[in-house]
Amino acid sequence: MTVFIPQKTHFIAFLLGALGVFSFAPFSFSPVILVSITGLFYLWLTAKTTYESIKSGLWFGLGFFGLGVSWLFSSLYIYSNVLLPVAIVMTFLFVLFLALFIALGGGVAGYFKQQQSTGFLVVVLFPAIWVASELLRSSIFGGYPFLLIGNTHIETWLAGYAPVFGVWGVSWGIAVTAGLLLWLHQKRTWLLASLPLALVWTIGGGLQDIEWVKPVDKPIDIALLQGNIPQEEKWVQSNFLPTLNAYVSMTRKHLDADVIVWPETAIPAYYDVVKKGALMSFIKDIQLLNKSVLVGVIAGGRTSEHYYNALINLNRPEERYYKHHLVPFSEFFPFSDFFAYMSQLFDIPYATFTHGEKNQPPLELGGQLAGLSICYEMAFGSELAQQLPDATYFITVSNDAWFAHTFEPAQQLQEVQMRALELGREIARSTNTGYTAIVDIKGHIKQQIPAYERGVLRGEVQPYEGLTFYAQWGKTPVLFLLFLLFSFLLAKRYFMRRR
User: Is 323 noted as a catalytic residue in this protein?
Assistant: First the structure.
């Protein structure tokens, strides 16, 4: 286990990884990620053995995810009542799991490093390895697309790659930039490295000028509710009626809006219960007024073996969306038999949801078809793209109270900004505690209300039609490029060994 006995280079790798977190929200110092990734590539380049590359990648990952996803500890210990030692161990294991993907990248770097030029390694191979590790991590066991470095450059020229290749294209642009900076430093090839560096950024800037989609019809007047109900109070029985009364009161003040949205599980109960009791008269009023009120609630349960994390249109309750991409080890357990005992460590109501159907159609809200997602699903652009081209805008809801006053709510809003860029659709986001916002198709925040305050964001969402390149093709082009590169490298290595 000498891998966990840090040496000087491992300590440097750990610090480089932790440094990279400051390029993400809420800090958003985007140039920092270039320093971080350049440093990692330097460690891979100068490593004398594959094992050393693996260890550098592992320690980088421990610093990167140890700080970047530290919000998991808050969720486990503060809000799930997990014992302190168990919460520490579980958080560490999760961080270690994520770090292993970068360690694997280090192993691949060491494996292919022999007889390759410095320029090829840092400009072609290492960036491809980084993107491949992000893709793999975002796919395996349900996917863990946390801290994808492409999210850090929404405000730079590299954002132009998002509508073409998605967040992976931006990540690749960042990694290539880091590699070129390292190549420039290593060989002092100022002209040779500066030209492709300028090209990468100039192309990205030029892509930003392409109008992939166009507005259609008039904007939708939308009211996004933010109840600011603390997680530790959300499921307390004595707070049930005050919670409902708060949302009903906010709704009644904005009944002139085209669409009103409540956050994820804003109703801390089964829909079948409240529709016959606490919300019966309110639902009848909404239906008489013919108003689109989209609420987050638990569907099913008492009358069914299955229950869903759902969005239901109170005006037409048969129109609903069931969350498909559930959070592993929270909303469901991938290995339920093996991990059944672990669920007893959590004090989370409705901890085992049923997956909704994969291809659910958009709902008509405010005279337009709205694509829908709940919380974690916003991290998966290719899945959201399945609601296009029908959806002319998106509504997403979340309950970030699980991670209140940590990095996570800001990181998730950054993911919303990336999805708007990738898909060419404005996105309205309603959350329990923040950040409630409206994001335009360039990934810019049009409107936002303060976090951790009760309030309503009243704004306009512009519908769009058309498709970006990424919305049509998803991650297929990136996967194809990676397949070609690694096939070439494997073939080259095979033939060289046969000589």
Answer: yes
Query: CA 235 → CA 78, 87, 449, distances in Å?
Result: 15, 21, 25
> Same structural domain for residues 304 and 380?
yes
H or E element, residue 209: none
User: Is residue 233 among the annotated active site residues?
Assistant: no
The residue from 52, 113, 234, 264 that is catalytic is 264
User: pLDDT in tens for each of the 499 residues of the chain?
Assistant: 455 566 788 999 999 999 999 999 999 999 999 999 999 999 999 999 999 999 999 999 999 999 999 988 888 888 777 788 888 998 999 999 999 999 999 999 999 988 788 889 999 999 999 999 999 999 988 889 999 999 999 999 999 999 999 999 999 999 999 999 998 876 666 677 788 999 999 999 999 999 999 999 999 999 999 999 988 788 788 888 999 999 999 999 999 999 999 999 999 888 888 888 889 999 999 999 999 999 999 898 666 678 888 999 999 999 999 988 777 656 655 555 544 554 454 444 435 778 888 889 999 999 999 999 999 899 999 999 999 999 999 999 999 888 888 899 999 999 999 999 999 999 999 999 989 999 999 999 999 999 999 999 999 999 999 999 999 999 999 999 999 999 988 888 777 776 6
Set 134, 375, 377, 422: catalytic member: 375
- The residue among 454, 467, 442 whose CA lies nearest residue 371 is 467
Q: What is the DSSP string of 303-325?
A: TSS-EEEEEEETTSTT-EEE--S
Query: Which residue is catalytic, options 134, 323, 331, 415?
Result: 323
Whether residue 277 is found in the same domain as residue 141: no
pTM of the model: 0.91
Helices 162-187, 32-46: axis angle to 10 degrees equals 60
207 and 221 belong to one structural domain? no
Which domain, by its residues, includes 493? 2-211+476-498
End-to-end CA distance of the chain: 37
Whether residue 264 lies in the annotated active site: yes
Task: For residues 257 and 205, state if they share a domain.
Answer: no
